[in-house]
Design brief:
By secondary structure, the protein is α/β, with parallel strands linked by helices. It has one domain: TIM Barrel (Alpha-Beta Barrel). Helices cover 52% and strands 14% of the residues. The chain has 17 helices and eight strands. Helix 10 links the parallel strand 5 and strand 6. The longest helix is centred in the middle third of the chain and has 19 residues. The chain binds adenine and zinc ion. Zinc ion binds next to strand 1. Adenine binds next to loops.
């Protein structure tokens, strides 16, 4: 038989990617809100709701600062529990449609607290109840499992991060879906060292520790994140500049949550083809592919897998290894990991 035409090859590969059980480990709930959903949210809250072209214009940032401003504007449209529930349920439907079987999702709890004064009643618990409703529905109707990671904003104050992490510790015994904590925001304005004691306290409370590092900053930011006990590193784009750091990440089996399209769209990496994904993978690092803020970057996890193939020549077997890495690097219990790994191996 002759070789099948290209379009059919691509279709086969897309189908293979969708059937591969995958975990998404670096995904911001707020970053999954599409312009169309933003319009809907604005119609709920604003006297003069934004139009779709205005919403689309907001997502056309050209650098990291512009991205953070757009992210903030979207967060400001998430006001009540019903807004969060809508966003969460849509996110979960989209995850399931891509063959994502498990996701560990950042919720910007730091943003919720930032906009409420201390005299107002606790704002986050009703919001969290709505997220849990969406999560339980996703387990029932989509067979999708979700863990929550409470994310603080590093360029706000340390006290604000403390409030976020203590809330996670306080709620976690009642909600096992709260798996850990993280730090996002602008690394150029705050590193990891100021949060050392808070990370230690969170670890003592049984929370898992993630951290954005080396996205807009150099390899020293990744070393600093490791020094405060971060278990997984988000982005780690600049590790490639430091041979000894790459060796350490490999030796310690530190999972990297890579986000290639995100890095291209925020202007910190020239192109997907030039992203260090391939370099790290070939060096034997525990790399995972993720979409970060897919609605802002016009991508999703399945598309990141496809781009790994088209832009960096990842073969089917290598894509299978990326899927296995995502399960291995997750915070799932060992038994669940073993089950998914078995299924990943069996996909034809
Ligand atoms: N919050 C949401 N997305 C982020 C990113 N890529 N970097 C830092 N903080 C974020
Ligand atoms: Zn992120």
């Amino acid at each position: 038989m002759g070789k099948k035409p290209m379009a059919s090859d691509q279709h086969d590969l897309e189908d293979f990617i969708r059937r591969l059980p995958k975990a998404e480990l670096h995904l911001h709930l707020e970053g999954t809100i599409l312009p169309s959903t933003l319009v809907e949210l604005s119609a709920r809250h604003d006297a003069r709701p934004i139009t779709l072209p205005e919403a689309e214009a907001l997502y056309r940032f050209t650098d990291f600062t512009g991205f953070l401003e757009a992210f903030k504007a979207v967060c400001q449209q998430l006001i009540g529990p019903e807004d969060y529930e809508l966003a969460a349920w849509r996110m979960m439907q989209h995850l399931a449609a891509q063959g994502v079987v498990h996701a560990e999702v950042f919720v910007s709890v730091g943003v919720v607290y930032h906009w409420t004064t201390s005299s107002e009643q606790e704002p986050f618990e009703p919001i969290f109840a709505s997220l849990e409703r969406a999560r339980e529905r996703a387990v029932r109707e989509l067979g999708l499992s979700i863990y929550w990671i409470f994310d603080a904003v590093r360029h706000f104050t340390v006290e604000e991060a403390e409030r976020v992490f203590r809330k996670a510790a306080e709620m976690q015994p009642h909600y096992p879906s709260i798996i850990g904590i993280g730090l996002g925001g602008d690394e150029r304005r705050a590193g990891s060292e100021p949060f050392r004691a808070l990370y230690a306290e969170a670890a003592c409370a049984g929370l898992r520790l993630t951290n954005h590092a080396g996205e807009t900053t150099g390899p020293e930011a990744i070393r600093e994140a490791l020094a405060i006990g971060s278990e997984r590193i988000g982005h780690a784009l600049s590790a490639v500049k430091d041979f000894y750091l790459v060796e350490e990440l490999k030796e310690r089996g530190i999972p990297l949550e890579l986000n290639p399209t995100s890095n291209v769209r925020t202007g910190v990496c020239h192109s997907f083809a030039q992203h260090p994904l391939r370099h790290y993978f070939d060096a034997g690092l525990l790399v995972t592919l993720n979409s970060d803020d897919p609605a802002f970057f016009g991508s999703d996890l399945a598309n990141e897998f496809l781009l790994a193939h088209t832009q960096q020549n990842f073969t089917r077997e290598e894509l299978r290894r990326l899927a296995a890495n995502s399960i291995n690097a997750s915070f799932l219990p060992a038994l669940n990991k073993a089950e998914w790994l078995f299924q990943i191996d069996s996909i034809k």
